[in-house]
Amino acid sequence: MDVRRRMAPPPAVGAPHRKAAGAPRALQAGDALPLPIRHTNLIFSALFAVSLAYLMRRWRAKIRSSIPFHVVSLTEILATFVLVASLIYLLSFFGIAFVQSIVSSTDEDDDFLVASSSSSSAKAPAPAPAPPAQCGLLGSADAVSEKMPEEDEEIVAGVVAGKIPSYVLETKLGDCRRAAGLRREALRRITGRQIEGLPLDGFDYTSILGQCCELPVGYVQLPVGIAGPLLLDGQRFYVPMATTEGCLVASTNRGCKAIAESGGASSVVLRDAMTRAPVARFPTALQAAQLKAFLEDPANFDTLSVVFNRSSRFGRLQTVQCAMAGRNIYMRFSCSTGDAMGMNMISKGVQNVLDYLQDDFPDMDVISISGNFCSDKKSAAVNWIEGRGKSVVCEAVIKEEIVRKVLKTNVQSLVELNVIKNLAGSAVAGALGGFNAHASNIVSAIFIATGQDPAQNVESSQCITMLEAVNDGRDLHISVTMPSIEVGTVGGGTQLASQSACLDLLGVKGANRESPGTNARILATVVAGGVLAGELSLLSALAAGQLVKSHMKYNRSSRDMSKAASLSLTP
Ligand code: ADP
Among 25, 172, 459, 527, which residue has the least CB neighbours within 10 Å? Predict the structure, then answer.
């Protein structure tokens, strides 16, 4: 279940921090202080104590001499001001960390650094500690010799000892890059691993805060290749694919070439609706059935839509379909979600409806906002049959000569292979939506490049590939039918710099203002078009017996891995 949260960037309450070599650091409020943060804290604590003591003494004196409280001297006004100011400062500095430490104590699993530090001391032999003073904050060899500022040293030591929860660093420091650097250093000390190959700099950590990734210590680099042009619905798309599987982009590119030289592919979006299915329990199956009848009665649809649609300008209820298991009812809501993939949006709408239903069905006990009949990130027949996200069919007619020249095979072999492998073979395997050669390869690569949720590859890759000989058996008709492509061009990872650049390349970056939903639908057709190209090329390679040969060429490193391994151990 998608549980993305949105948080405002944290307040800049960080301490002054000397710039680490090679790492430009964002200016913080704390930098404006004339003294180190520890001394500033001491001064404010002292001011608080002195002003409080003074005011208490004056209060006692006034009681004794019956002076009314509202008669105040200039010193008393000054002391009150100092008291309030120092209280505000101390609360803002210590209060946030305190509240978070209380919240965190209820769920220790949240903090893997603290958990791992304590558990490693309890269960496993302690790993060899890294030299504490000469620590590398930056993950680069140069940084290893850089001495950390004293204050950072204290924070890292606190995290390693489990005294400072790792996840409060962003909020506490007000500097996401610095927080990631300190967390990484703590991780390095806890594990004794250098993680030098995992870069730290060159990434905007503020862009993922509260939205894409918690407890960051760096980022993984993935190559992005381009397949295309994919000639689809009269447009040329250069399709970005993030992958480490050799051959994949080259193969998809070959499929694109065959499609383009045959006049292009065309697509149709059959359905566009995200789904969410909460589960509720009733005392009896009869009562659950009464709710089912209510929700599925067309006479109630308008009321339900008004309640549902309140949650967003873009979420529009389309259908409610219910299933039952004993006295449990699973209500599968479908709605359009504009250019968003839509999980957050639909969840809000569903919650509105559940709140509304509670009045008329007081015995309804909502067990979960997601009851798995949705079905998100699980292989399920309901998505295969009913669809989820965008249901797309994409087709092309590949000319005989292109099959021969570009794909190096013939129509008859391809048709036969498809029946025996993708249809009969998958039936023998008991496949659920897996009647294809490698749809998930293309889906995953485009998903990662364009900031989609890669876990939704499970249902988004459901695909049946059909091949037929047409035009008196000379040409090849190929189609892919994909009922559950879950994509968006706003929200989640789509707004991150690299992913957003890939969406821009496809001309579908962000929200489509004239016609909301169009960008996401085009992206879904590009995914299907890419799959069409991928299927065409891989099936051709299999039919022509080229697969092993091309994999040996592209998917095997020519480097001597034993040498590479020994090189990487060289300091
Ligand atoms: P998801 O529901 O996929 O998790 P989010 O809720 O994270 O998506 O992002 C959608 C947000 O983008 C919503 O706040 C929505 O109001 C806003 N938005 C702006 N333009 C659009 C659009 N054209 N389509 C969908 N959402 C849009």
Answer: 25
Alpha-carbon distance of 212 to 456, in angstroms, equals 15
Q: Give per-residue pLDDT as tens, 468-503.
A: 999 999 999 999 999 999 999 999 999 999 999 999
CA distances from 413 to 419, 434, 481 (A): 10, 21, 21
The answer to whether the CB of 483 is under 6 A from ligand 1 is no
**551 carries an active-site annotation:** yes
Asked whether residue 18 carries a pLDDT value surpassing 50, the answer given is no
- Position in ligand 1 atom list of the atom nearest CA 343: 2
Per the listing, tokens 């001495």 go with 147
Nearest CA to ligand 1 atom 5: 491
b/e 16-30 (16+ beta carbons within 10 angstroms → b): bbeebeebeeeebeb
CB contact at 8 A, 336 and 273: yes
Helix (DSSP H) and strand (DSSP E) numbers for the chain: 21, 11
- Token digits for 311? 């949650």
Structure tokens at 513: 């203002």
Q: Name the pTM for this structure.
A: 0.76
CB of 491 closer than 6 angstroms to any ligand 1 atom: yes
Q: What is the CB neighbour count within 10 angstroms for residue 408?
A: 14
Q: For residue 248, which of 267, 215, 225 has the smallest C-alpha distance? A: 225
Contacts of 273 (CB under 8 A, 6+ apart): 318, 319, 334, 335, 336, 337, 387, 388, 389
